[in-house]
Design goal:
149 residues; alpha+beta; Small Protein B, Chain: A; 4 helices
Amino acid sequence: MTNAPTIENRRARHEYHILESLEAGVVLTGTEVKAVRAGGASLTEAYARFRDGEAWLLGMHVPPYRQGSFSNSEPTRPRKLLLHKAEILRLQSRVAEKGLTIVPLRLYFTRGKAKVQLGLVRGKKMWDKREAVAKRDVEREIAAHARRS
């Protein structure tokens, strides 16, 4: 059996300060699982919302599976997140705070089950992003200088 790829949301680490993270199951159809295992999913526009005491992942794009026909589902349909009730209530209260939201950071498989790593995040300001880029550039120059020495 082949290893399923881990799908990262690299943009989230650039756009947000990650305050905490947790793991949740995600409900996928059969052809969606096959499409994700083939490496075809995007988390860049995805976010989580709460409705009727349940957590939903919105905006995650899973392209139609090539060999699936009528069984393919809508690429950006809402997908239910599997969390304990206490976790949902705690996250709902945290998201009610100003400026916090929940975004997926990674999508992966554990023992055959689709899991998503969610992050409770606060948006970065433009100067935060520039500061992070400058810091990364300095670290890269230091590492290059250390290799030359």
